Amino acid sequence: MARSGVQYEDVERAIETLLAQGETPSVQKVREVLGTGSFTTISEHLREWRARREERRDSLPGRDIPESVATLAERLWQHAQEAAGEVLGEYREQADRQVVAAQEAVQEAQRQAEDAVQREAALAQHLADIQQRLEDRSAALATREAERDQWRQEANQLAERLRRLNERLEGQQAEHEQRMKEHRKAMAEREAQNRARLAQEEQRHESAEARLMGLLDEARRERQAVEKARAHRERQLETRLEALQQQIEEVNATLSEEEKRHRETDWARRRAEEQAANRQRERELLQARIDEQRRLLEQQSQRLRELESQLGRWLRHVSAVRTGDAAESGNAEGSATAEPSEKSSDTERER
Q1: How far is CA 119 from the centre of its chain?
Q2: Where is the KfrA N-terminal DNA-binding domain (predicted)?
Q3: pLDDT tens figures, 211-254
Q4: Please, are residues 38 and 53 in contact by the beta-carbon 8 Å criterion?
């Protein structure tokens, strides 16, 4: 949609001016004539003017003209339209390229503006960073100056301390020189004493040397005696070693015989152990049989006691039945008493 800055009438007057000058109207030339306006608005008005011109050409009224002239005019009109279409296409392509270039220029300008804004922001940030670093460095400089003043004070103190130490060192050096003089004097006196003592020691050494030579001769004689005794001792040890070697051989032979007897004894012991194990197994079997016989005997004894109990109950029952006859009861009681006695004696014998 066209903006209100440039109207269609303005574009139409500019086109008429160009046609009057014998120039073909285009977006660029129309804008040069107007001196203002955007390419998009001028292009829209230019297309509208061309459309209206085509409509006017198509709607021209017919006149009474010869057919040959009309045919020729029609052909000329077609050729003119084709030429105008080609020129119009070129103009349109040129206008489109100019519009695209203008849009690209606008985008480039916008990018440059954005870049400028970003650079401005970056510069502002950089300036802020520089100011912050300046403040930090100012604070650091103040700290360094304070430290420098402190170091100067410490240096002054150290210089004063060094001066005192130098004075003390000079005093100690003087004292040391005095002591060295006294020491050299004492050393001279001591050297004289040592020389006198050395002369005495040399005299004593001569007498000691004579005594040492005598002791050396005596030591040589003692060494010879010791060597003789050692040779005799070595011969005795060799003789004893031979005797011990012979004893070792005899002991080895005896040991071999003992090992042989030990093997025989070990074999006999293993045989005895096997026999003892066999006897132990036989004893265990016999013990098991004895236990089984005892168990059977206990079962028979239990059965016998049960039979005796049943017999006693039966006898009591019989005595209760025969209570009517006193004589018969007495005889029955005597016989009953005799029978249990006999059975009891038989039971005791079985036990």
Answers
A1: 48
A2: 7-116
A3: 878 887 887 888 888 788 888 888 888 888 788 788 878 878 88
A4: no
Query: Rounded CA gap, 247 and 235, in Å?
Result: 19
Domain boundaries, the chain: 8-57+72-140
User: Cβ distance 347 to 304 under 8 Å?
Assistant: yes
Please give the Cα distance from 333 to 224 (Å, whole number): 131
Instruction: Give the type of residue at 46.
Output: L
What whole-number distance in Å separates Cα of residue 106 and Cα of residue 108? 5
Q: Classify residue 64 as left (phi > 0), alpha (psi -120 to 50) or beta.
A: beta
CA angle 281, 287, 288 (to 5 degrees): 90
- 50 burial (CB, 10 Å; 0-12 / 13-18 / 19+) is middle
Cβ atoms of 329 and 315 closer than 8 Å:
no
**pLDDT score, position 2:** 40
Q: Which residue has the tokens 């005598």?
A: 214
Other beta carbons within 10 angstroms of residue 27's beta carbon come to 27
For 267, counting Cβ atoms within 10 Å of its Cβ (0-12 exposed, 13-18 middle, 19+ buried), the class is: exposed
Give the C-alpha distances (Å, rounded to integers) separating 194 from 181, 186, 201.
Answer: 20, 12, 10
Query: Rounded CA gap, 170 and 164, in Å?
Result: 10
Beta carbons of 26 and 91 less than 8 angstroms apart:
yes
The set of residues, in sequence order, having a beta carbon less than 8 Å from that of 6 and lying 6+ positions away, is 34, 36, 37, 38, 41, 42, 45
Is 80 exceeded by the pLDDT of residue 349?
Answer: no
| Alpha carbon distance 244, 256 (integer Å) | 18
